[in-house]
User: Fold this.
Amino acid sequence: MVKDLVKYYGKLKALDSISFTISKGEIFGLIGPNGAGKTTTLRIIATLLKPTSGKVIVAGYDVVKEPDKVRRIISYLPEEAGAYRNLSGQEYLNFMARLYAKSKKDAEEMVEDAIKIAGLGNRIDDKIKTYSKGMKRRLLVARTLMVKPMLAILDEPTAGLDVVHALHVRKIIKEYARKYGVTILASSHNMLEVEYMCDRIALIHKGKIIDEGKPQELKKKYGAQNLEEVFEIAVKRGSA
Amino acid sequence: MSHLTDLIKKEVKDLLREPHILIFAILLPAVMYIVMGVVITGAMESALEQATTTGTKVAVINFDKGIFSILFIKFLEQMPQSNVTILNTTNIHAALKFLEGQNIRTLIIIPKDFSNNISSGTPTYIRSISIIKELSLSSIMGANIISGVIQAFSKTLLTTIVKEFNIQMKPEFIIQPIKSISDVYIRNKFIPSEILSNAFGMIFSIVFVPLIVIGYVASISATSMGIEKEEKTLEVLLTLPVNRIEILISKLTGSFIISLLASVSAGIGFWFYITKIMSVKTKPLISEIAESSITSRGLFEIVSLNELTLIIPALLLTILLVAVIGFIAGALSQNVRSAQSIAGFIWIPLFLVIFPLAYLELASLDLTSKMIIAIIPFSSPIIAIKVMFSNEYYVLMASLLATVAYLVILLFLATKLLSSERLLLGIKWRRKF
Assistant:
């Protein structure tokens, strides 16, 4: 639950009292252009930044007051994430799994899942520095999902992926959320991606949420063909 | 080629507009080297003055009473700033005990047949004993000064006095009429002064090699944070279910282990280098001391292995302190380049402290000055060496406690920094140009 979230960077107001709630097992999309405040919102929820004011509660825990507890139930994928280049893909996944797993068996299962999600085949044993940008992103998506978090926070999950791999990742995110009941908060400026993947979306523009709802309902509400049009009309109405 | 000028202009402008490059790579070195020059020159001059004063302030036991011993004493008295005390005792140990209470650090012993030997053209010797409280460059210089005086007398004797006395000389007498036997009296033991120099060289190499490595420690720990930022792994790291202290400890331990490996590697290399160099130099020239050249023997004749281990906590705490400073520098930087340029200069204040202290004789200072030196950051390793000889362990304890206090403060700051947005957003340097 995000309530009246405000964030200033110096004098710049990055978030202007935004609020939204995500239900358990839901895939929620935060949609908006670059600089709209998506990443700042996700970073606050991921305990990386502190809000200037407002409240964020994840599964009953306040991100400011109980960040350690929040970190145990979330898994965050930043937009420009990297991985330790001198480790192999397998070593990286083993390292991450050990931080979340309660037992050795748990960790092994997580890594097995991740290898399937990443779809890297034998390359999983190669050093990460030899991976292409797309391979690295798939590894990171796999790392984020394998721990079956209560809330997965994905900032532009398919950034840098080609069409085929982007499709693969979207499919996996959707399947994974359904299969394990993982709640997903994803940000994107790719409206097609959002329409395919998300149960509900919030349109964010200049640090404000300008509308919120199911993709189909929003299209109907604005009489639009697609979400791009929805966004355009919503912005115009908001500034009118 | 036509675009080369534009490219160079762009490159210089871009680099100069990086404030950390301007400050740490261009302005700071000039300031630091000037300060280092002033501080080290001051320390050297003071050590030399101290050595000259202690070297020319001597006590003499004359077992000879003949004409040449009297001439030698007169020669001593004519030396600039000389202060000669004639002792009437024949007990050397009692004389040394007496001198330890005085501000006289050199005892000269003229043997019984000194004048007779010279009269018959037979080589003789003068023995000097330097009382040394701790290993410092000034104490070594002081021990060497009196040998120089004896050699000077020896030459004067040969060129002028002997002519007047018309002495029949043996060939070896012509080469060296008076041999200087120079010992030092340290921790109630007599040690040949060559061994003292060897011990000094050895013990400082034990400290200096790790200190050089400390430069790498700062770089390693700063780089480790810089890499996390540059490779974009920091954001994920900070959202993992591990607390900030665990992250800090893991980073410091990693840097610490690497620096220990680097210390061992550099130490082995340095030891090999020094023993090779010294074996070439000493064996053919001075066969009688070759056996005591740079080997552990020289050192362990003065201190025990247990006492030598005092250096370990001092070095480890200093390495840890530098690692934390490096970590903070890295955490405040935006990338590897800026982290390394800041970390690269952490060794300068380190050497600003270590070098002057190597020249200084701590034991001769008053309590307040000792305590002030003890609380200077990075002073513990050099203090550990000094108290090993002077037995003033309380100075080392004060220094170690001060280092622990600095560590606690910096670790607290580092933990705060890890929980702060600054880590992710970095410090915004103000550009004014």
User: Anything to note?
Assistant: Chain A touches chain B at residues 9, 43, 46-50, 68, 71-72, 74-78, 80-85, 96, 99-100, 140 (CB under 8 Å). The mean pLDDT of chain A is 88. Residues 163-180 of chain A form the longest helix (18 residues).
